Amino acid sequence: MKAEIINSELLFHYKNIQVEKRLIRLNNDIKITRELLLTNEHFAVVVVSDSKYRVILQQIYHYGNNQYIWGVPRISITSKHFTEEDVKYFVEDTFNCFVFSVDKIFSSYDDATIVVDRKIDFYLAKVDELTENHSLIRFPLEQSLKFLSKDSITDNFTILALLWLKYQISQPLLHSSIQTVQNGYKNVYPLPKAKILNEEILYKGKVFDIINRNVLLADGQKKSFRVVRRADTVLAVVIDKDTKEAIFLEEYFPGTDSSPCGLVGGHVKRYDKDTEKHYINHMNRELREESGYCGKLTRLLSCHGSIDLSRIVHHFLANDLEWSPLETGHEEYVPKNIRVSTKKLLDAQFLSEILVSEVVTILTALNRLNFNQK
Predict the structure, then answer these.
(1) DSSP letter string over 97-160?
(2) d(Cα 146, Cα 143) in Å, to the nearest integer?
(3) 247-276 tens-digit pLDDT
(4) pLDDT tens figures, 65-96
(5) What burial class does residue 204 get, using C-beta atoms within 10 Å of its C-beta: 0-12 exposed, 13-18 middle, 19+ buried?
(6) Domains of the chain
(7) Which of 13, 82, 309, 366 could be joined to 371 by an S-S link, Cβ 3.0–4.6 Å?
(8) Contact status, residue 361 vs residue 263, Cβ threshold 8 Å
(9) pTM, two decimal places
(10) How many helices (DSSP H) and strands (DSSP E) are in the chain?
(11) Is 6 within 8 Å of 83 (Cβ atoms)?
């Protein structure tokens, strides 16, 4: 569903980013106002696999949340026309290795509720042996996924890339028996810490703020980062066991001017105390309000959003459903649900039309359910 931009107002401009307020008319003639971030920064995310079919994870400074994480390499780029040859040069230069092959495996868009047209491309690069490095770890694919299942030590890009390989790419990565850590994960080099020196608010909006953050990194360098600060997100895959269908919502995303199937979810303030209860309660309210159902909620994973966003995404599975719509002030509230067969949840074309964070929720839920496409 395309929409009409009635007018737009420039609210803020700083280097390569700007903020616009847009008045948009949807196809049903409803008018909405949205505060949107425009940037020419896109990302290429690269899964690097060595000759023993191990996935390479590296320490990455997530400056949005001021935390070091384990993740697959990524490149910040200012052009959508990034090629496999560009990825090859990046990997060889970064890891001082020879790249046998590079394949593009997936593309999607990032946080299109506020960010306009930011594309994320995912690649698989196969390389020869890498030199030992404390900031790198190597695991077979399944072991990588288990290691990263701890809350908030990785990001959406990494989880999506690894689960996409598991469910879409049939190769020895999944079945490798190479053990890189002899005693579980005890020998994994601990993640370092960074210190925020000071922050300056560049733009304060209704939905998000833009701040300039000066940081002392773990290696002693002082750097400045531009951070988009916004609320955390809760998302749920809603599964109807009786019909073997997943329940989606028809939702308009102004960042891509499209209406793909969307997951039930919403934005939530971050709390340090009673975190589990807080996010489950908020997810349950969103579930009843948007889909009309209540159900059993299983928290799957919490991980970081894009590296420049101060956002954590909390992924849930909802099943054992009962009809229990939340009163919204309307006399009769009938949510507009879209039902999709669970068999379609691994369809590459279907997933490519959904946002990065929502694909992560879907694949993480299927992984938890040991879902088999066949």
Answers:
(1) --EEEEEEEEEEE--TTTEES-EEEEEEEEE------TTEEEE-HHHHHHHTTSTTSSBHHHHH
(2) 5
(3) 999 888 888 888 888 999 999 887 665 577
(4) 999 999 999 998 887 678 999 999 999 999 98
(5) exposed
(6) 230-368 (3.90.79.10)
(7) 366
(8) yes
(9) 0.91
(10) 6, 22
(11) no
